Amino acid sequence: MTTTMKPLQVGLLGFGTVGGGTWRVLRRNQEEIRRRAGRGIEIVAVSRRDLAAAREQIGDAARVVADPFEIVRDPAIAIVVETIGGTTLARELVLEAIRHGKHVVTANKALLAVHGTEVFAAAGERGVMIAFEAAVAGGVPIIKALREGLSANRIEWIAGIINGTTNFILSEMRAKGLDFGAVLKQAQALGYAEADPTFDIEGIDAAHKATIMSAIAFGVPMQFDRAHVEGIAALQAADIRYAEQLGYRIKLLGITKRRDDIAGGGIELRVHPTLVPRERLIANVEGAMNAVVVHGDAVGTTLYYGRGAGAEPTASAVVADLVDVTRLHTADPDHRVPHLAFQPGALAATRMLDIAEVVTSFYLRLRVADQAGVLARITGILAEHDISIDAVLQRESAEGERQTDLIILTHDTVEGRMNAALAQMQALPTVLAPIVRIRKEELS
User: Fold this and answer.
1) Which helix (H) or strand (E) covers residue 10, if one does?
2) What is the mean pLDDT of the chain?
3) 178 and 106 both lie in a single domain
4) Are residues 100 and 121 located together in one domain of the fold?
5) Do 239 and 185 fall into the same domain?
6) Which of 19, 88, 222, 434 is most buried, by CB atoms within 10 Å?
7) How far is CA 365 from CA 30, 49, 183, 407, 422, in A?
8) DSSP states of 309-325
9) Does the pLDDT of residue 54 top 90, yes or no?
10) CB-CB contact of 68 with 45 (8 Å)
11) What is the DSSP letter of 69?
C-alpha cells in the first residue's frame, strides 16, 4: 500500500560532480529505490548558476533555477540535497532549509566539521533530519557503521585513509621512488588532484572527515579547531624507502583515539603521515582508494574499504541517505537515530588532547657525521628522556662520504617528551640537517 504514495519531492542544490551523479543514480535505479524506500523519490528542482548546462542534461525532467534559496523555501519540497560545498553559502542554505522544515542530505564534510554543532542543534529544534553518509569516504558506508552497526561497542580508536588524492600520491612515490613534487604534477594531470590541491595535501580534507568520525565514535561535539593537522608535502622519497626496508608503509591517516589513562579522560584527534606495518590490510590500500579501521571492545577490529570520491560512489551514499530519510520522514523525531549516534543531551565534554599529550611511537631520520660516538650520544639522549628504541638502521656511507643517515624506530612515548629529546639532538654539532620525525602506529 505504501508504494502507491505520492513520491517525496527533493530539491538538489548544485549540479557538479556529486549533484550530477546523484541525478543519474536516482533516475537509473528509481524502481529499486522505490521498492526499498516504500515510495518514490523524485528530484523536482535543481539549482545551478549555468542554467543552460543544467537544462542540457536534465531536459524537462525537473525545474532548473539559478537561485538555490528558491528551492529551500519551496513548500512542496520535503528534502534538500546540498552538494555545493564550502562553509558559507552552504551553511546559509542548510539553515534556511531547516527553518522551513526540510530534511537535509549533504556531502559537505567541511560544513559539518566546522558548523555541525550549530546545524544539528537547529535540526533538533525543528525536528528534521541531517543525513551525511557521503561526507566521509564517499561510497564507503562508515557513518552508518559507526552510528548503527557498531552501536553495541565502546569504540576505542579509528584510523583511516580518508583522502584519495594523498593516498594516490604516496602510492606512486613508493612504487616509482619519486619525490612529492613530481608525483603531484602527475596526479593533477590524471585528475586525481585539483589545480589547487591545498585542502588535500595539507591534510585539511582528511581532518574534516576525522572530526566527524570522532564525534560519532565518542559522543562529543564537532571540534575541528582542536584537530592536529599535518600534510604530506614535506615527505621525501628516502623516508618512504627506509620505511619499506624496516617493514612499514607511510600513509596519511586520520586518527582518533579514546584515552582513559589521564584524569578525566581525553580524545586524540590528528591527521599526519604515519608508518603502518606492511602486513596490516590498511597499509596495502593503494591508489585513490579509501579505508577506515575501527576498533570496538566487542567486535574487535573491522575494516571498511572502497572508493572515497567520484560522481557515482559519492552519489551512492547520497541516495542511500535519501532512502533512509524517506523511510523515517513521518517518524517521531525521538525515534530516529541521533545525528551523532548519541542522544543530543548525552554528548560528553571530553577534552580533546593537545598533540604534545599524544602517545605514539616514532620514526626518526638523522643525517649525522660519520664518526665514532655519534650513535651512542643520540641513543643516550633518548634514554635520558625515557624513550626506548625498537630498531636502528644505519646506512653505510659511500666511499669518501663523511656523513650518513641514521634511522631509529622508537616504542610508544608521549609526544612532548619526544619534542624535548629532538631539540637536544638537533643542537648536536654532529647532526648535520633537520631531523625527520614521522609518527608510527601499529594498529594492532
Assistant:
1) strand 8-13
2) 93
3) no
4) yes
5) yes
6) 19
7) 55, 51, 22, 5, 11
8) SSHHHHHHHHHHHHHHH
9) no
10) no
11) H
- Same domain for 130 and 27, yes or no, is yes
**From 144, 209, 251, 257, the catalytic residue:** 209
User: What DSSP element (H or E) covers 65?
Assistant: strand 63-65
Supply the CATH number for residue 25's domain: 3.40.50.720
* 63 in any annotated domain: yes
Closest Cα partner for 172 from 187, 152, 151, 153?
Answer: 187
pLDDT of residue 86: 93
Which of the four pLDDT bands, split at 50, 70 and 90, describes residue 4? low
Residues 247 and 374 in one domain: no
Q: By three-state DSSP, how is residue 442 classified?
A: coil
Centre a 10 Å sphere on the Cβ of residue 112 and count the other Cβ atoms it contains. 29
What is the CATH classification number for the domain harbouring 414? 3.30.70.260
Place of cell 517525496: 8
* CA–CA gap between residue 315 and residue 39 (Å, rounded): 19
Could you give the CA distance from residue 372 to residue 388 in angstroms, rounded to a whole number? 22
Answer yes or no: is 381 within a domain: yes
Number of domains in the chain: 3
Strands 41-47 and 63-65: parallel
For residue 296, what are the CA distances in angstroms to 258, 268, 302, 317, 373? 11, 16, 8, 24, 46
Q: Are residues 173 and 280 in the same domain?
A: yes
- Domain check: are 190 and 278 in the same one? yes
Sign of the CA dihedral with 262 first, then 263, 267, and 268 last: negative
Residues 24, 44, single domain; the answer is: yes
**Residue 209 among the catalytic residues:** yes
* E strands, 173-327, in order: 228-229, 248-259, 266-277, 289-296, 300-307
- Which one has a higher pLDDT value, 191 or 174? 174
Mean predicted confidence (pLDDT) in 8-31: 94
Question: 102 to each of 9, 10, 235, 306, 317, how far by Cα in Å?
Answer: 11, 10, 45, 31, 19
For the chain, state the CA radius of gyration. 24
| Number of neighbours of residue 388 by Cβ within 10 angstroms | 12
Q: Does residue 417 form part of some domain?
A: yes
Domain span at 84: 2-139+312-346
How far, in Å, CA of 366 to CA of 437, rounded? Answer: 9
Residue 353 within a domain: no
Give the domain CATH number at 147.
3.30.360.10
